[in-house]
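Feature request, filed as a ticket because there's no other form

It would be nice if the structure record came with a short human-readable summary line next to the tokens. Right now we just get the raw output. Example of a typical job, pasted below so the devs can see what we mean:
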Amino acid sequence: MAKNQDIQIRDPFIYVDRKEGKYYMFGSTDKNIWGKGTGFDVWVGEDLENWEGPYPVFRPDTEFYSDENFWAPEVHYYKGSYYMFATFLRKDNGKRGTGILKSDSLMGPFLPHSETSVTPKDWFSLDGTLYIDKEGKPWMVFCHEWVEIGDGSICAVQLSEDLKEAIGEPVTLFSASQAPWPTSFEHRTRKSMKNYVTDGPFMYRAKNGELLMLWASFVDNIYAQGISRSVTGEITGEWKHDVETLYVDDGGHGMLFHDLNDELFLTLHSPNQTPNERPIFIPLEERNGMIRRKK
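Raw output as currently delivered:
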């Protein structure tokens, strides 16, 4: 049995199994996530403090299209199966993108479902998440990386009903610089540009019906979380941005979930330095579409 302070993980994602009364915690679980990837593991617990595992849920074979940068797995239940959206660095062109795996069990094994990454082949993309619109159509919301475009953006693309591929062209929802809270930074490879990060979008339908998006960026080089909201209630926006951050204590790439007692939580990893990152759980309160840390 391990406690949160014992578990090195980035990009934690909680699947709440209400039938079993258990939490399944997925995330970037390679000790050195910046290099060669070994796969993904899951931790299983009956509360948010004590975990059994890690249990392997994905190990690639030699034919898999990536062997590096295995990042940010999310698991969603869709039409009778579990689908894992995760980021991989492609072998064929060295570009990152989100691919989709499938399993009949939360314990895996998850096997390749999409042929390769579902994000545009020639883009540096990451952190795809599933969103089902009001008409039941599946979308993937993902980040177009700052390493390619400078001012990172968040995009959406409609998926085929079987989640095997994207259909149509991606739509840019907004760029990081359009929100009031992220700050720019210089990078040695892009010294003449202002760079802004977008990471880890997660969709959340508030109790009042508003469509919210949690996402991560940096404030004065500190990893942080903020919220944006769709004016129309549709994934294509227009998107407006909360002025205040939700979390700005060197943690990010989070998600929102209701625990087994229906209390709202934010989970993310903090601090944002390898190998010290750990999962943390923050109780929240929601009032009229506004989400704040519970006092």
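Something like this underneath would help us a lot:
The chain has one domain: 77-293.
The helical segments are 146-149.
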